[in-house]
Design brief:
Length: about 210
């Protein structure tokens, strides 16, 4: 029998590679650069934070930052804040705001912050969102955010009930993410702000998982 060199058809392998690349491109999401990095304290809790959460970040100096991920809810909260503080935002600015992450600027400077690129926002000077009694803007962001998140939860629940499908949503929560070096008085201040707004959400304190002793 005449001998012949073995051959391997790589076409299926190439097709599989392109399918995987296409899958990751379609499912990947852009990670937004955060304006502040905090080193959270460690704990032994391994509970995962649910999706329907408004996040208040407190850096080492006590500056406050706010974030809620759902784009539609973000825009609705912005509309409420714009009406309360008499600040106008264009549709283009609302669209940019919907795709942003945490922010820590007063509502009066938010337009300037939104219209910057990622590099400009990183260099933007900020003292955090005001939280004093005269300008309690963080309280309003929390209040309107909780209202809009609750409306979204109720709407989705009623829709699932109408369609007789299983509802897996969770009630809105608030999460506080503080730096390990942050004075606890700043955390207590945020908790007091939430209480004064007469909200009754579940509050999560975000920590890093402790390493197991070797």
């Amino acid at each position: 029998m005449p001998s012949a060199s073995p051959s391997l058809d790589m076409t299926p392998m190439v097709d599989l590679a392109f399918l995987l690349v296409t899958f990751f491109m379609l499912t990947a999401s852009v990670r937004v650069t955060e304006p502040v990095l905090v080193d959270t304290p460690s704990s032994v809790s391994d509970k995962i934070l649910p999706n329907n959460v408004a996040l208040i970040t407190i850096d080492e100096d006590g500056r406050l930052f706010y974030n809620i991920e759902n784009p539609t809810t973000r825009v609705k909260i912005l509309d409420r804040m714009a009406g309360a503080y008499k600040v106008k935002f264009t549709d283009a600015e609302k669209k940019k705001f919907a795709g942003m992450g945490s922010f820590g600027v007063p509502i009066e400077k938010l337009r300037d912050y939104i219209n910057l690129d990622e590099v400009g926002r990183a260099k933007f000077p900020t003292a955090g969102i005001p939280s004093d009694s005269a300008h309690n803007q963080i309280g309003d962001w929390i209040f309107y955010g909780f209202i809009e998140a609750s409306i979204k939860f109720k709407t989705e629940f009623e829709k699932a009930k109408e369609n007789k499908t299983e509802f897996k949503g969770e009630k809105p929560r608030l999460a506080i993410k503080a730096d390990s070096k942050t004075d606890y008085i700043h955390v207590q201040h945020v908790i007091n702000v939430i209480k004064k707004k007469k909200l009754e959400p579940r509050i999560n304190l975000i920590t890093s998982l402790e390493e197991e002793p070797k």
